[in-house]
Amino acid sequence: MSVKNEEFRPVIVAFCCNWCSYAGADLAGSSRLAYPADVKIIRVPCSCRVNPMFILRAFEKGADGVILCGCHPGDCHYSTGNYYARRRMTMLFSMLDFIGVENGRTRVEWVSAAEGVKFSETMNSFVDKIRSLGPNVRLGDLRCKD
Amino acid sequence: MQRLIDRAKELLGSGEVARVLGWRKGENSWDVEPAFFASAEELDGFVYDGFCGANLSKYMIEASKLEGKTLVFLKPCDTYSFNQLIKEHRVDRDKAYIVGVGCKGKLKIENIPAKGILSVEGAGYPDAAEMLTVKTLYGDVQVAYKDAMLERCHVCKGKDHMIFDEQIGESADTLDGDRFAQVAAIEAMSPEEKFAFFQAELSKCIRCNACRNVCPACSCRKCVFDSNKFDSAQKANTTSFEEKMFHIIRAFHVAGRCTDCGECSRVCPQGIPLHLFNRKFIKDINELYGEFQAGADIDARGPLTDFRQDDCEPSIVGKRG
Ligand code: SF4
Ligand code: SF4
Ligand code: SF4
Ligand code: FES
Fold first, then answer.
1. Is B284 on the interface with A (CB under 8 A)?
2. Chain B contacts of A99, Cβ < 8 Å?
3. CATH code of residue A30
4. A95: nearest CB among B191, B281, B315
5. Structural domain count of chain A
6. Residue-number span of the structural domain to which A102 is assigned
7. B201 Cβ under 8 Å from any chain A Cβ
8. What pLDDT was estimated at residue A4?
9. Which of A138, B41, B189, B210 reaches 20 to 30 Å from B234, CA-CA?
10. Residue A72 has pLDDT above 60, yes or no
11. Residue B83 scores a pLDDT above 70
């Protein structure tokens, strides 16, 4: 077992919609806006592609926080995907909260392709939140940890 | 009970139905099991009493594929499930002859705190006794019918049949609890308490899959939990993650479709209060998207296959506190 004494570096999984938030992340990058390297982006075709299993799996594999970013309501490339995603995620997050996984570990944020600044701010604030909550021990598969 | 048998024989005899779907006596009076009856003779084994908690609507999925009509007995709560299955195109309304049966509350043998039970008297229908006389190896015990009832009967949705061809038998009001009280109590706990509570409950799960198999909403032909790409298919939970994942995913899959029929909690051999998950979703749906009862109205749109442009954001979960 390794002794960890350095500062807690959370693992954050960000599911980003290809059409908006992923491009928003790109813009943040090309505008040289900083966001912590702790954020691992997974590109999805639409926010509505994310099913509850994705979120749970991310936690199982060691994520300390999971965020889903999609197009603003009304702007979904497939018209209504994010409206469905919004209801699903509300339900799922509420259930996670119900079984004792702190609500701060899950978030949904609408970020357009033009909002590089919002992307970087969102990620910074989310990482800060997860740092304050500490490591996720409730939903992780301990075998995945070193 | 005799009225049900007589009517079933009549319909079988006239050829209107090809078979009867009902309940059959088991080894002990409380071991009642769902069964198909194809002839008047077979109906001798038919039983309808306080131990007929089993919801027969799911069996109509298979019965819908058979030749001819099936006479099915549905209690008031079971009719919600049947309606929901019609809505999901899983059962064929025209293949069913539905007799809505009255209900005076159903019992759970585990709720009778006695050892060495030999028989339970007073559980009959329509003449259910207020006090059950439980004969045991160690003498007789009196238990109030109410105290031996299934949890779901204390929060009964009502004794109206949502769908039927005819109705037989009277019902008794059994509602004496608040359906969402326990969910609300858990919501008020701290994250640590919530987690400890569910950890204690869910670690009892042996992944027998009974809750899924009995659930009318869980009738996908291919279930995620049977997929060989799914690493905890067909095996007991081994980690704290697997324990929670199975229950969260199952509850999520039935969210908006679960009629709160109570079958999952009834069959769980480990006594896990599975209704807490379903009711949490139902409570949230009611609060956030408007009152909704699955199976009450075939034409209503399910809340998770619907949306409003001004729906709340997921951040509401944290804000509600
Ligand atoms: S019925 Fe109970 S023990 Fe069996 S899988 Fe469901 S929760 Fe687990
Ligand atoms: S989840 Fe339980 S209460 Fe809901 S429909 Fe299925 S068996 Fe009935
Ligand atoms: S758990 Fe999900 S996939 Fe499996 S039968 Fe139920 S609803 Fe279908
Ligand atoms: S395409 Fe971006 S959320 Fe649907």
1. yes
2. 194-195, 198, 244, 248
3. 3.40.50.960
4. B281
5. 1
6. 12-134
7. no
8. 52
9. A138
10. yes
11. yes
> What gap in Å lies between CA A107 and CA A89, rounded to an integer?
9
User: Contacts of residue B183 in chain A, CB cutoff 8 Å?
Assistant: 98
Find out whether the beta carbon of A63 lies less than 6 Å from any atom of ligand 4. Answer: no
Q: Where are the extended beta strands (E) located within A1-146?
A: 12-17, 39-44, 65-70, 106-110
Confidence of residue A142 (pLDDT cuts 50, 70, 90): low
B199 neighbourhood in chain A, CB within 8 Å = 100
User: Is residue A92 domain-resident?
Assistant: yes
Tell me the one-letter amino acid at B303: P
Q: Nearest Cβ partner of B281 from A91, A93, A143?
A: A91
ipTM of the complex: 0.92
Query: Is A139 inside a domain boundary?
Result: no
Q: Which of B187, B241, B309 sits opposite A73 (nearest CB)?
A: B309
- Domain edges within chain B: 1-106+154-177, 178-321
CA distance B234 to B241: 16
In this predicted model, what pLDDT tens digit does every residue of B179-210 receive, in sequence order?
999 999 999 999 999 999 999 999 999 999 99
Q: Which atom of ligand 1 is nearest to the CA of B267?
A: 1
A2 pLDDT more than 70: no
Structure tokens belonging to residue A13: 């999984």
Helix B191-202 and helix A81-98, axial crossing angle in degrees, nearest 10? 90
Q: Is the peptide bond before B126 cis (omega within 30 degrees of 0)?
A: yes
